[in-house]
């Protein structure tokens, strides 16, 4: 399975194509739209979220809400395009006056603006920021929600949530025996996707302080996955190691600057006998572990324990008090451009990280078990799980 997205932040729409998705999956569109709404939610989001109410449209590869095995085409309309029609029209000639009004020539530190403009020889950096915008992740969330539904047919669940915003951090979920249905109910009970409602007021205070100071905030998220059999991924080549693939997938999300697994960077401070997960075996469960310091991954492969991924998001680069920059045409000192932005988008990042994990797990599972239909994949996965129990 592979996917591709297209579209600009203020263009007419976002488009996604998924190739290699199996036939026979009954799609719940409401679930996809629910995930899109969750991406748009969260305390501290900007005015753009009040304009867009994302709804997915399925344009191909599905009939009567059942996948056909053909490439699937998804579309999300950009409602804000109505305010940018002439400026962001894909095929109509540009209006020089209007284009100049919305041109960007003062790149924002921390954004793709300057380097993207240098790479693609752009004199108007809007041609960079429109695609590099996190708006693109809406389509990745839609694709991830589709993958989430396939994983559910294989008894695999994925959940992303917030573990910290700014200076406020929370205690993450214990990582050995997890009930993701229960955890999802907890995080969806508040606007911040925190495990404990009691942490919300302290977190909101941090956000409000940043807003008053006209700053932006980053934070941390964690993604959990349960139901994974041992052996997904591989140790034989660098590119097939699952932790490497997941790290790339998560770090491809806008503003993510670090990814770790299990106890993460804290493992570097432990003695060797404290950092590993001792092995046990029972006839009922097969091989298992007594701890999960490594986050369900050993040697580039799942080991049957819950997958635990941690990621850190830097503060949003668009500043309400612009930083110093250089105007690219005159090479004069200037204040960086400002675009409509959020104070914090860590809540959204947790939803996108959940989606990217689901996509990557689907890719790996389809590579391992093949099959053009959901029922074939289910039977092969069931046989593999039984084989593991008998080893």
Automatic annotation (TrEMBL):
Record's catalysed reaction(s): 5-O-(1-carboxyvinyl)-3-phosphoshikimate = chorismate + phosphate
Cofactor(s) listed: FMNH2
GO MF assignments: chorismate synthase activity; FMN binding
Ligand binding (FMN): 131-133, 254-255, 299, 314-318, 340
EC numbers on record: 4.2.3.5
Gene Ontology biological-process annotations: amino acid biosynthetic process; aromatic amino acid family biosynthetic process; chorismate biosynthetic process
Free-text remark on how the cofactor is bound: Reduced FMN (FMNH(2)).
Enzyme class: lyase
Chain positions recorded as NADP(+) binding sites: 39, 45
GO cellular component, one term: cytosol
Coiled coil (residue ranges): none
Pathway in which this enzyme or protein is active: Metabolic intermediate biosynthesis; chorismate biosynthesis; chorismate from D-erythrose 4-phosphate and phosphoenolpyruvate: step 7/7
Purpose: This reaction introduces a second double bond into the aromatic ring system.
Quaternary structure (record): Homotetramer.
Official protein name in the record: Chorismate synthase
Biological source species: Latilactobacillus fuchuensis
Lineage: Bacteria, Bacillati, Bacillota, Bacilli, Lactobacillales
């Amino acid at each position: 399975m592979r996917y591709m997205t297209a579209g600009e932040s203020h263009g007419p729409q976002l488009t996604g194509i998924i190739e290699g998705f199996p036939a026979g999956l009954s799609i719940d569109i409401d679930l996809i739209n629910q995930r899109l709404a969750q991406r748009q939610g969260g305390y501290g989001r900007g005015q753009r979220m009040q304009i867009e109410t994302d709804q997915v449209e399925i344009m191909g590869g599905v009939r009567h809400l059942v996948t056909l095995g053909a490439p699937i085409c998804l579309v999300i309309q950009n409602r804000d395009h109505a305010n940018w029609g002439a400026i962001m029209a894909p095929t109509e000639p540009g209006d020089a006056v209007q284009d100049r009004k919305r041109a960007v020539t003062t790149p924002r530190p921390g954004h793709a603006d300057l380097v993207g403009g240098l790479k693609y020889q752009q004199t108007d950096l809007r041609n960079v920021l429109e695609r590099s915008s996190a708006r693109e992740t809406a389509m990745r969330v839609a694709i991830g929600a589709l993958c989430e539904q396939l994983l559910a047919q294989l008894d695999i669940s994925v959940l992303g949530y917030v573990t910290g915003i700014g200076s406020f951090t929370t205690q993450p979920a214990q990582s050995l025996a997890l009930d993701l249905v229960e955890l999802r109910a907890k995080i969806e009970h508040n606007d911040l996707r925190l495990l404990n409602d009691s942490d919300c007021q302290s977190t909101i205070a941090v956000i409000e302080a940043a807003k008053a100071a006209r700053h932006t905030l980053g934070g941390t998220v964690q993604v959990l996955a349960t139901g994974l059999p041992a052996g997904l991924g591989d140790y034989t080549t660098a590119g097939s190691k699952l932790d490497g693939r997941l790290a790339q997938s998560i770090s491809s999300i806008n503003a993510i600057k670090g990814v770790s697994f299990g106890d993460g960077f804290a493992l570097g401070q432990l003695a060797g006998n404290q950092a590993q997960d001792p092995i046990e075996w029972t006839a009922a469960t097969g091989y298992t572990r007594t701890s999960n310091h490594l986050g369900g991954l050993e040697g580039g492969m799942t080991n049957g324990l819950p997958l635990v991924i941690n990621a850190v998001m830097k503060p949003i680069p668009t500043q309400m008090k612009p930083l110093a920059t250089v105007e690219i045409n005159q090479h004069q000192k200037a204040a960086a451009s400002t675009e409509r932005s959020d104070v914090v988008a860590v809540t959204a990042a947790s939803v996108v990280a959940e989606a990217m994990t689901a996509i990557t797990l689907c890719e790996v599972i389809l590579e391992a078990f093949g099959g053009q239909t959901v029922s074939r994949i289910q039977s092969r996965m069931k046989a593999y799980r039984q084989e593991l129990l008998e080893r």
